Amino acid sequence: MRTQQLRYLGAGLAFLVAALHLFHPDWGFVTLALILTFDSPLSHLLYDPRPVAFVVSALAIIIGINLVLVGFPRKPIYLLGMLLLATYFVGYFAWHLTGHGGLLPGREPRYHGLAPLEAVVAHMQEDVWARIAKLAEALLFCVLALLYHRES
Question: Mean pLDDT, to the nearest integer, of 58-64?
Fold first, then answer.
């Protein structure tokens, strides 16, 4: 695949990953907007930071795409993109391996009667949105790594 085609594939995957996070039915923009109308939104967001993380990271991806389009050097964007994608994976597995954020203050771990790894596997089997997101993120990481290598 030519480098330009790979860039187009990367941009398409980046938009897909951003859209999956921004429009997530449970933790996307609509949820964040709703939480911000609560009396004490900060306490809700400290209890479950996913809405902020999903929306801010999606916006970061869109900003990254636009920076590339206006001529910003690509390699730093590729590296930051790979870092964000790695963060998605670490965050997803840390969240589920600790019983839905049981590592956060004020949250009791919930494993649904399963061992931590079994809970992760069960969630991946049940959650089509998560499977699509993890696949798109993994593909985008590979594309960005390849582009970074080609542009060295």
Answer: 98
Which residue, 123, 125, 129, is CA-closest to 20?
Answer: 129
| Distance between CA atoms of residues 124 and 116, nearest Å | 13
Per-residue pLDDT at 19: 98
Buried b (16+ CB within 10 A) or exposed e, 6-33: ebebbbebbbbbbbbbbebeebbbebbe
Q: Helices marked H in the chain — which ranges?
A: 3-22, 29-35, 41-47, 50-69, 74-97, 116-126, 128-150
Nearest CA-CA partner of 50 in 114, 120, 107, 11: 107
Q: What is the reported pTM?
A: 0.92
How many residues are there in the chain? 152
Tell me the per-residue pLDDT of 2-32, one tens digit each, with 9 for 90 and over.
Answer: 999 999 999 999 999 999 999 999 999 999 9
State mean pLDDT over 113-128: 87
Quote the crossing angle between the two packed helices 128-150 and 3-22, to the nearest 10°: 150
* Those residues with Cβ within 8 angstroms of residue 38's Cβ, 6 or more apart along the chain or in another chain: 44
